[in-house]
Amino acid sequence: MSTPNIAIRSTTEADWLRVRALRLEMLADTPLAFGETLASALELDDGAWRARARRGEAPTGTALVATDENAGALWVGSMGGYLDSVGPMLVGVYVTPEYRGRAAGVTDLLLKAVEEWARSESDSLTLHVHSENPRAIAAYTKRGYRPTGQLFPYILNPHQHELEMRKQL
Asked: Which residue ranges does the record assign to the N-acetyltransferase domain (predicted)?
């Protein structure tokens, strides 16, 4: 892989096929990290994927994609946010394996953009991470997120838990 030239942008409805492809990659690569199974995602129709792609245009949230401009605008990561009762929530965090790590900078660029969106809504950003995903917990901790002490049942298996973490912005 050559040195990436990462660009961050919001998704639009026209991106629905790429949104679908990246989501299916996410679910196959790290199933524990999401509240959806690959099987259920494969059942969605085109209209559902178009609606997901439009999230980048929603006034109450954000859906961002990272592209490597040196690789033909290859989609290499995504993150999103929406307003919950506790305030802005970080969701849909994924970076393609070849683009993970501080050197590529994809996670930091996406997170910075979601945090900027969240800052316009609140002074903090909250996320839920599976308690058995130490790589993700470590990545969030390095970036200033701290456990709130709250645990929630994991939607796909109520015998497992998600840890709530929050960062003051």
From this structure: 6-169
